[in-house]
Structures are given as structure tokens and as C-alpha cells.
């Protein structure tokens, strides 16, 4: 039976490394049996997807970078040891990616090194479109769309996959449907409508804002409490709603009873989309110099200051000479101030560029350190797994040795008891020397009789007497058990059948 699931991650590089570069989980088998791509070259998937994230400013881990789809095929469907089946599994994964995500880059990696040894595809879909940079949204990020698309491809190749379960996105009871068909009020439908409106509001960018908006605009109280499960069975935060219906009754319902469309993972997707929309709609503030802010053209002012002007000849006096000197000093002061302002602006711009370079270097260093930590952790986990496997192997070997020793000890004990009994058993009871139940019974009674006196001879029981007494007693007990069993069978056979 085929199995599908979908999850997302903000670290696309780690997902590629896990699927494409991680050492094999099964000795003697390659990690990657086949690989292909949709809208990319599988040998350069990391670089091409990274270029897309960087080109559209989504390379810092602030956005979902990748959706990971797992397509697992049963051993009754595809044989991992058959090269043609391996190629077919990868081909179906590629067709799935091309049809459901035609506008996305996708890497398809086929493996069979899991615990069950089944062929399965890792379909790594770039959430960021290489065409317009928009993030993947809507039904294509959910289980239903993935499962239906997988089934469609499998049917095309002659398989008969199980149908995708319906009715989980928006749950409605038969009674509620009957009321709605009659045009009567259904309080759950009213609540669902209010929740859909609240989730669709573009101003909600956090859980607190959602709680406030639902209470003020839709009259619904929202509480985040407990846990629930999404369409893939992953644990998510639970939501509880309550409101006053149109009849004035207080109604309460958990999101999980309303359907998957009303749970916290759907709300979080809306919130993330709203945040992205707000980021994209915020205009960039142009950096201007202090001179530009005041619409002051420094060069024009300087040209005007020093441009020769035609003036009427006048008689030079000491007063007019003083005025000329004062005017030239003022022009020089303005010129010096303009040059100083330009120098300050250039200095600020250089400092900003330096800070940006330092920040870029810091982020690259953080990414490098993160990658090193992940690689070290992966290595530690592999070593720990190998250590545990070795310890488990040693434990099983020790257990096997102890079991063999116990078995050998039991065989020796039974052989000794048989050796003791054989000379003294009557012909009728000779078979008891090979009856382990009798030998255990003999050992238990032997310990009790060996030091006691025979009431007839008033002498300590001899070994012959002990064997004869215990074997006779054991035979009587067995005959009594068989007699009781036979009597019970006769009674049951003679009981009349009762009609009911």
C-alpha cells in the first residue's frame, strides 16, 4: 500500500543534505538509488535552490524554504531489489512533481534504506517560486492534494492505490446537514463562518492579534490550549472557541471537532502569508544626504557664489570695501559648510556599507557554524547508533550463551535423574525415565523422602523404595487426571442441546 505525507522546513539545505548526502542507513545498500529533478539539475540542486532563495531575499530562515513529500511504496507494489522498479518509483515521483508543482523546483531522490526496506521517494519542493519568488500556499501544501496527485500517477502506471479519506477538512454531522438542508440555523456553521472570516483578515500577524480580532469583530472567544494533530498526524497547538449563538446560548467547540481547516496550522499559514504581504507592501525608504532632505543643490549654490556679476562702477570707499570683504567671508563660510555636509554624508554612507559587510560576514559565519554543528550532531548520532547496535548484539550473544548453558544444565540434570530411576522403575513405568514432568516430580519428592523412615520397615527409605513409591504415585495421579477428563467429556456429550 502506498503512503504519502508532507512537511515543511525553513532550512532547505539541511533537507537536501539529509536526503541526498546522508550516509546509508542500511549496510551494503546505497543511500541514493536514483535521482532526478523538475526545473533543476539534480547534481546542482543545492546551488540552484540556494540561488532562488537568495535572489528573492528568502535565504535567512525567515520563510518556509521547502516542502518535503514522502512517497512510500509497499513491498507488494515495488521490489527495491529490481532496478526497473527503482526507475519506475523515481519516474512516478518526477511526474508527480511536474504535475502538482509545475512552477517550482523539485529534487526527487529514491531510497530503500529505511527500517522496512521499502522503496520511497523524497520529493523536495522549493517553496519559493523560481519564476516570481512567491511562497507556496494553499491546497498544494496539504496532505489531501499530495495523496490525490500520488494516487493519480500510480493509477496511470497500472497500480490500484487506496482512495484518499474524505470529510476531514470540514466536519459536519448528518443531523447538521439535515438542518442546513431545511434552511434552519446551525450554530457550528455560524461559528465556522466567523472563523473563516477571522483567518482571512489580512491584519492578523500573530496569535494575540487573532484573539483580539475574533473577540472584537466576530464575538468569538479564542483560547490556545492543549494539543491537536494536523492532516499528517503531527502534533500542533489546539484551539478552543466559544460564542453566543443567535438563540442566546453559549456554544463551545474545539477546532479539531470542526475540521482540519479550522486548526492552528491553517491559522499559522494565514499569519505567515499576511506577514509576507506586509513586508512586500512596505516601500523602501531611499537614503538621502542631509543636503538632499532640504532640497539644496550644493553645486548650483557654489556656482552662483563665484559667478562673475556685472555691477555698476562706483567709487570705492572704505565702507564699500568693508562690505565686499564681509560678503566674500560669508560666501566662503557657506562653501565650507556645504563641503563639510558632503564629507559627513560620504562618511555615513561608508560606515553603513562597512556595517552591511560585517553583518553579511557574521551571518555567513553563523551559517557555517550551524552546518558544522549539524554535521557534528549527525556524526554523534551515527556513532551512538552504532554503539547501541553493538551493545545490543553483545547482549543478545550473552543471552544466547546463557540460554544454551541453562539448556545444557537442564539436560544434564534430567540425564542424572533418569540414570537414578532406570534400574528401579517397573516395566510398566519404564517410559517415565524420559518424562521430564515425572523427573521434576521425582526430584521434588526425593528431597522430601530421602531422610524419612519407611513406616513398614522402620528403616530409612532406600533409593529403590523412593523410586517405586514416587513412580507409582505419579502414575496414579496421571490416571486420575485422565479419568476426570474422560468423565467430563462423557458429561458434555450426554447433556441435551438447549434451544434458545
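^ C-alpha cells above, recovered residues below v
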Amino acid at each position: 500500500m502506498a503512503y504519502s505525507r508532507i512537511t515543511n522546513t525553513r532550512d532547505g539545505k539541511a533537507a537536501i543534505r539529509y536526503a541526498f548526502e546522508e550516509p546509508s542507513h542500511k549496510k551494503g545498500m546505497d543511500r541514493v538509488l536514483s535521482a532526478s529533478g523538475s526545473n533543476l539539475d539534480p547534481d546542482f540542486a543545492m546551488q540552484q535552490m540556494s540561488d532562488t532563495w537568495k535572489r528573492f531575499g528568502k535565504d535567512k530562515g525567515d520563510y518556509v524554504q521547502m516542502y518535503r513529500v514522502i512517497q512510500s511504496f509497499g513491498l507488494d507494489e515495488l521490489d527495491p531489489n529490481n532496478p526497473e522498479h527503482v526507475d519506475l518509483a523515481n519516474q512516478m515521483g518526477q511526474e508527480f512533481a511536474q504535475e502538482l508543482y509545475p512552477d517550482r523546483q523539485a529534487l526527487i531522490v529514491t531510497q530503500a534504506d529505511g527500517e522496512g526496506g521499502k522503496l520511497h521517494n523524497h520529493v523536495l519542493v522549493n517553496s519559493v517560486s523560481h519564476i516570481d519568488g512567491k511562497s507556496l500556499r494553499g491546497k498544494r501544501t496539504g496532505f489531501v492534494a499530495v495523496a490525490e496527485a500520488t494516487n493519480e500517477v500510480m493509477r496511470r502506471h497500472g497500480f490500484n492505490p487506496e482512495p484518499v479519506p474524505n470529510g476531514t477538512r470540514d466536519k459536519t454531522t448528518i443531523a447538521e446537514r439535515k438542518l442546513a438542508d431545511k434552511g434552519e440555523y446551525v450554530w457550528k456553521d455560524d461559528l465556522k463562518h466567523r472563523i473563516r472570516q477571522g483567518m482571512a483578515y489580512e491584519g492578523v500577524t500573530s496569535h494575540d492579534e487573532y484573539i483580539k480580532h475574533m473577540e472584537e469583530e466576530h464575538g468569538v472567544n479564542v483560547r490556545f490550549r492543549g494539543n491537536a494533530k494536523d492532516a499528517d498526524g503531527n502534533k500542533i497547538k489546539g484551539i478552543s472557541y466559544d460564542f453566543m449563538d443567535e438563540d442566546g446560548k453559549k456554544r463551545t467547540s474545539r477546532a479539531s471537532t470542526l475540521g482540519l481547516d479550522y486548526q492552528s496550522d491553517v491559522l499559522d499559514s494565514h499569519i505567515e502569508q499576511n506577514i509576507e504581504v506586509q513586508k512586500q507592501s512596505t516601500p523602501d525608504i531611499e537614503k538621502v544626504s542631509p543636503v538632499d532632505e532640504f532640497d539644496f543643490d550644493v553645486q548650483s549654490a557654489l556656482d552662483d557664489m563665484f559667478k562673475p556679476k556685472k555691477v555698476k562702477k562706483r567709487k570705492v570707499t572704505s565702507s564699500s570695501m568693508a562690505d565686499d570683504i564681509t560678503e566674500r567671508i560669508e560666501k566662503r563660510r557657506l562653501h565650507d559648510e556645504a563641503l563639510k555636509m558632503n564629507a559627513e554624508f560620504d562618511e555615513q554612507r561608508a560606515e553603513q556599507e562597512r556595517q552591511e559587510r560585517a553583518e553579511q560576514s557574521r551571518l555567513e559565519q553563523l551559517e557555517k557554524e550551524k552546518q558544522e554543528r549539524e554535521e557534528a550532531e549527525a556524526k554523534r548520532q551515527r556513532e551512538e547508533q552504532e554503539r547501541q547496535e553493538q551493545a545490543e548484539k553483545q547482549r543478545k550473544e550473552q543471552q544466547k550463551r546463557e540460554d544454551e548453558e541453562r539448556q545444557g544444565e537442564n539436560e544434564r540434570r534430567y540425564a542424572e535423574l533418569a540414570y537414578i530411576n532406570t534400574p528401579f522403575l517397573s516395566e510398566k513405568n519404564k517410559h517415565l525415565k524420559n518424562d521430564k514432568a515425572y523427573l521434576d516430580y521425582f526430584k521434588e519428592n526425593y528431597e522430601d523422602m530421602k531422610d524419612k523412615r519407611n513406616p513398614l520397615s522402620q528403616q530409612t527409605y532406600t533409593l529403590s523404595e523412593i523410586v517405586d513409591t514416587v513412580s507409582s504415585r505419579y502414575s496414579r495421579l496421571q490416571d486420575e487426571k485422565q479419568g476426570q477428563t474422560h468423565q467430563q467429556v462423557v458429561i458434555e456429550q450426554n447433556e441435551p442441546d438447549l434451544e434458545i
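The chain has four domains: 3-156, 174-281, 290-404, 425-492.
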